[in-house]
Amino acid sequence: MSTFSGLNSALTALYAQRRALDLTGQNIANANTDGYSRQRVELAPVEAVSNPARWSTSRGVGDGVEIIDVTRLHNEFMTARTRAEHGLNQYLQAQSAVFANIEQTLGEPSDTGLQSQLSDYWSAWSDVANRPGDTSARTQLLARARTVTDTMHTVRQNLDNFFGSTREALDADIRVVNQTSAGIADLNSRIALAKTASMPTNELADRRDQLVLQLSELTGAQGRLKPDGSVDVSLGGNLLVQGDVVRNLSAVGSTTVDGTGVSPVKVVFQDSPSTPAEISTGKIASGLEALTKTIPDTVAGLDNVAATLISTVNAQHQQGWDIETVPPSTTPTPQQGGPFFTGTSAKDIAPAFTDPTMVAASSTSSTPYQGDNANAMADIAKDPKGADTVYRNFVVDVGIQAQTINRRAAAQQVISDDVTAAEQAESGVSLDEEMTNMLMYQRAYEAAAKVISTVDDTLDTLINMKR
Questions:
Q1: Higher pLDDT among residues 124 and 454, named by residue
Q2: Please, which pLDDT band fits residue 345 given cuts at 50, 70 and 90?
Q3: Contact at 8 Å (CB) between 351 and 340?
Q4: CA 135 vs CA 131, 316, 350, 355, 451: distances in Å
Q5: Are 122 and 116 in contact (CB under 8 A)?
Q6: From CA 263, how far away is CA 58, in angstroms rounded?
Q7: Could you tell me the pLDDT band of residue 368, with boundaries at 50, 70 and 90?
Q8: pLDDT band for position 330 (cuts 50, 70, 90)
Q9: Residue 263: pLDDT band by 50, 70, 90 thresholds?
Q10: Contact 233/184 with Cβ under 8 angstroms?
């Protein structure tokens, strides 16, 4: 090896170790950056290759070291697994929040819930049966009936409001999906151009993968890495992002929870409104399920309770007799009872009258101050097909669904955290490892510098010998 060749080899070592130190600093600087994948320099010797020929010669020693690549430590399989688990986790967490909101709206069990108010309502009928001629008992009955109906109105209105807010949230999430898809397409274009020009793309790929993860959390979308470095994002078999081309989504369908024949809420591609986007997991899937099943089923259950209450109470009330006074008479002239409640659902149920004398407490017209029909009304509370039983079964069903979702969400959270930790262990920055690398590159740099210094001293001695 000539002296000048030794200088060149040491110089390439200085360049390579300095670049490696720079990259170590980049890793350390981004130790807490979300989505950052650590990078590593790939070193290779500069070979002393001679072209094969009859008179060719070789020194037999290489010409130093060179950096052939800066590797992004990234496992595409682990990334795909993380996206899938995060999408399912977001779906279950959102579902848990939906049922928590519904349970809060129902407010059971509590002293102010509908079940407690129904109990008070039936007790008021017992009071009327015990004191059929007491106007205050009848007035109390009507007051408790209004309390029951007002509570049903409130619960139903809260469910309507919840549907509306969930629908607005779905529209907002769709806008985020479209914006994120556009960001992925832009990064795909920049990465492809950079690769064509042999420029680094590691940081761009990190940002792009973070956006794909956001799409996975919203829609369960999956990405497929292409040879040019771009990622195609698919949604239920349909491409959402292909290179730098984006297909936008939109939400269509009802904006209210009720209405026969109103189209159900769904997400479609804007360029093909007849093609629904198949979203089976992610936050948006939870929103769609809440809008098409969970909330409507809850409203239907509450309406069924109201309809049962209306039908059973009205049927029994119409078999009794009241103590209504018909002018010009000043004495009670019993009339057969009419409907106690009006309406057909929790939205419009209401007491049919406000006059306490119209309460049909008697079972016979000949004895207007008798309370047998009021007793029969109070016994409706024990009817296995009555409103109380229907309501209890309805609340229990909601509670079981909520408990099931909460358990699945808790288990999935653990799985999602474990998968994320495994991915971070492979691609995340370890400060201990980077400190070790920094010392290793520093020592190599110092050694290369020492080689240059030694060669310089040798040359100086050689030159002085010629004088």
A1: 124
A2: very high
A3: yes
A4: 9, 21, 20, 10, 111
A5: no
A6: 80
A7: confident
A8: low
A9: confident
A10: yes
Residue 33: phi, psi to the nearest 5? -85, 125
List pLDDT tens digits, range 24-35.
Answer: 999 999 999 998
**pLDDT category, 198, cuts 50, 70, 90?**
confident
| Distance set, CA 179 to CA 98, 203, 408 (Å) | 25, 20, 31
Q: Which two tokens stand for residue 305?
A: 């309770």
Q: What is the tens place of the pLDDT at every residue in 14-73?
A: 999 999 999 999 999 999 999 899 999 999 988 766 566 666 666 666 678 988 989 999
pTM > 0.85: yes
CB-based contacts of 290, cutoff 8 Å, min separation 6: 95, 98, 166
In 318-430, alpha helices (H): 372-379, 387-427
Helices (H), ranges, 282-384: 283-289, 295-317, 372-379
What contacts 210, CB < 8 A, 6 or more positions away? 34, 35
Q: Provide the pLDDT for residue 207.
A: 95
Three-class secondary structure of residue 42 per DSSP: strand
Residues 314 and 84: their CA atoms lie apart, in Å, by 54
Among 286, 190, 274, 288, smallest CA distance to 238 is for 274
Do 339 and 311 touch, CB atoms closer than 8 A?
A: no
Taking Cα atoms as reference points, which of 441, 414, 458 lies closest to residue 88?
Answer: 414
In tens, the pLDDT along 102-120 reads 999 999 988 889 999 999 9
Average pLDDT over residues 85-97: 96
Straight-line distance from the first to the last Cα atom of the chain, in angstroms, rounded to the nearest whole number? 25
Query: Where are the extended beta strands (E) located within 33-89?
Result: 39-45, 65-72
Q: Do 173 and 283 meet the contact criterion of CB atoms below 8 Å apart?
A: yes
Identify the CA nearest to 380 among candidates 69, 145, 215, 135. 145
* Helical spans, DSSP H, in 197-282: 202-219
CA 255, 257, 262, 263 dihedral sign is positive
CA distance 431 to 437: 10
CA separation, residue 416 to residues 202, 235, 383, 430, 467 (Å): 25, 21, 47, 21, 76
CA distance 384 to 125: 18
Q: Distance between CA 350 and CA 372 in Å, rounded?
A: 24
Q: Using only C-alpha atoms, what is the Rg of the chain?
A: 39
Structure tokens at 71: 């590797």
pLDDT of residue 1: 47
Q: Which two tokens stand for residue 450?
A: 């020492």
Q: What is the pLDDT of residue 261?
A: 46
Lookup: tokens for 251: 């939400």
